[in-house]
């Protein structure tokens, strides 16, 4: 090879004397072949091809950096001119400039029409609405489309089963938590009102990080059996339900520093590819797996996670996004509001809606404190309250709604029937009668002084 030259020296000539570098390349067929292969196919074919690609990458990076700097200077100059013009005179001329277009997208401002403050705005788009009277003729908003919400509960109270039931309801349009009437012990056991109606049935994505698909399938079968879904409704479920059983999979959407990882964009891409005509609901269970443990102690970390969930509400259909979360250790026995939800305050602050599933304990304070014993119906089914503890768009539920974990259907969640509510009322009355008899006899039980009065459910299953 004549005029032998090292690869680094040749690249230096590309910068200092491009013509001489080209003449050396043409005079050396081996060098020319390596560089030509690198130029055309973009892969290394020897030391000269490798050096050329390195130089080209550096050159492209430098070029992009110069272009970005020039663009920033142009933007600054443009906005400076606009500011000066606005100070001189008002102008209604459109500002057709790429920099201004990008600014409008980043900071959208809406022009107020003549109807603003004059006409009643359009009602919000609700995913779920609840009957607000015993006749079921009036519906009120319960869970809104396009917003992030939280459903929290202690472990073992059925929040995943409640979420699967909700997914079935939304995919086929059936009421949530309201099964068909059934008979028990020789008497009709009709579920009491109110019903929670699905007003935007459609596609649902069910992301369960602690369940295998086989477990999800079994739970969904039991819930569907309790709901007595028709063949047409079961077909709609199969058509509209996107299931991800993610047990054992790393589903963290933030790294340990709270930065969004590539997996978050991948999730959006996968959901978008399966959206069809759009989602009505996306369920994420549980927060701890998707957000990481830092979200429960770091407000900034939790806020970034909520922002990722908010991005999912912009998927086709503008779905509601509901994440499931655990409660503090004392949440099942302590606070009745949103303070019982575990983790940093930014979790509940960021959610626009929050509800809790709260176990119902034995009416006797002694049984509750000594045995942590949950109250059961005469069929052995456990009961719990559904309490809406935060809603930025609706009134809170006054107290809560009484639910049952139906052991006949694998623990599927439904509203309590009038019969079951009556059983609980009788258990409460028996405790109160026992206390009254003890007081009348002149001796009060040791626990009566500190014993709180358990809530009484109304005939509609609503806690007074």
3D structure, described in words:
The protein has 464 residues and is of the alpha/beta class. It folds into 2 domains: 7-89 and 96-106, no CATH class; 127-440, Rossmann fold (3-Layer(aba) Sandwich), CATH 3.40.50.300. Helix content is 41%, strand content 17%. The strands form 3 sheets. Strands 8-7-9-10-3-11-12-13-14 form a 9-stranded mixed sheet. β4 (182-184) and β5 form a beta hairpin. α1 (7-16) packs across α2, α1 (7-16) packs parallel to α4 (47-88) and α3 crosses α4. The protein is elongated, with a radius of gyration of 32 Å.
Low-confidence stretches: 181-188, 447-451
Q: Tell me, what's the shape?
A: elongated
Please state the second-level CATH architecture of the largest domain. 3-Layer(aba) Sandwich
> How many separate domains?
2
Count of DSSP-assigned helices = 14
């Amino acid at each position: 090879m004549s005029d032998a030259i090292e690869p680094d020296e040749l690249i230096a000539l590309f910068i200092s004397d491009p013509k001489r570098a080209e003449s050396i390349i043409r005079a050396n067929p081996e060098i020319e072949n390596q560089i030509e292969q690198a130029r055309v196919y973009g892969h290394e074919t020897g030391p000269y091809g490798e050096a050329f690609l390195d130089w080209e990458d550096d050159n492209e990076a430098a070029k992009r950096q110069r272009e970005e700097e020039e663009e920033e200077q142009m933007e600054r100059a443009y906005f400076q001119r606009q500011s000066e013009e606005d100070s001189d005179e008002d102008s209604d001329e459109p500002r057709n400039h790429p920099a201004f277009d990008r600014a409008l997208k980043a900071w959208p401002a809406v022009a107020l029409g003549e109807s603003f403050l004059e006409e009643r705005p359009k009602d919000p788009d609700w995913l779920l609405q609840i009957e607000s009277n015993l006749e079921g003729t009036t519906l009120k908003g319960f869970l809104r489309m396009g917003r992030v919400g939280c459903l929290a509960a202690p472990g073992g109270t059925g929040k995943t089963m409640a979420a699967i039931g909700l997914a079935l309801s939304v995919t086929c349009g059936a009421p949530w938590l309201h099964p068909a009437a059934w008979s028990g012990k020789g008497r009709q056991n009709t579920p009491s009102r109110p019903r929670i109606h699905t007003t935007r049935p459609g596609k649902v994505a069910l992301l369960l990080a602690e369940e295998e698909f086989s477990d999800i399938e079994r739970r969904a079968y039991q819930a569907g059996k309790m709901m007595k879904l028709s063949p047409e409704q079961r077909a709609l479920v199969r058509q509209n339900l996107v299931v991800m059983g993610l047990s054992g999979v790393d589903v963290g959407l933030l790294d340990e520093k709270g930065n969004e990882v590539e997996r978050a964009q991948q999730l959006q891409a996968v959901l978008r590819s399966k959206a069809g005509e759009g989602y009505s609901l996306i369920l994420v269970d549980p927060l701890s797996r998707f957000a990481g443990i830092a979200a429960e102690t770091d407000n900034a970390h939790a806020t970034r996670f909520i922002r990722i969930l908010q991005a999912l509400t912009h998927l086709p259909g503008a779905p509601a996004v509901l994440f499931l979360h655990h409660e503090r250790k004392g949440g099942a026995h302590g606070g009745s509001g949103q303070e019982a939800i575990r983790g940093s305050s930014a979790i509940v602050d960021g959610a626009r809606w929050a509800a809790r599933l709260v176990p119902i304990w034995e009416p006797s304070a002694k049984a509750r404190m000594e045995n942590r014993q949950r109250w059961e119906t005469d069929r052995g089914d456990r009961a719990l309250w559904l309490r809406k503890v935060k809603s930025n768009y609706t009134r809170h539920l006054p107290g809560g709604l009484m639910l049952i974990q139906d052991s006949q259907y694998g623990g599927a969640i439904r509203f309590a029937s009038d019969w079951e509510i009556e059983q609980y009322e009788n258990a409460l009355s028996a405790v109160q009668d026992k206390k009254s008899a003890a007081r009348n006899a002149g001796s009060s039980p040791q626990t009566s002084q500190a014993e709180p009065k358990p809530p009484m459910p109304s005939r509609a299953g609503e806690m007074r």
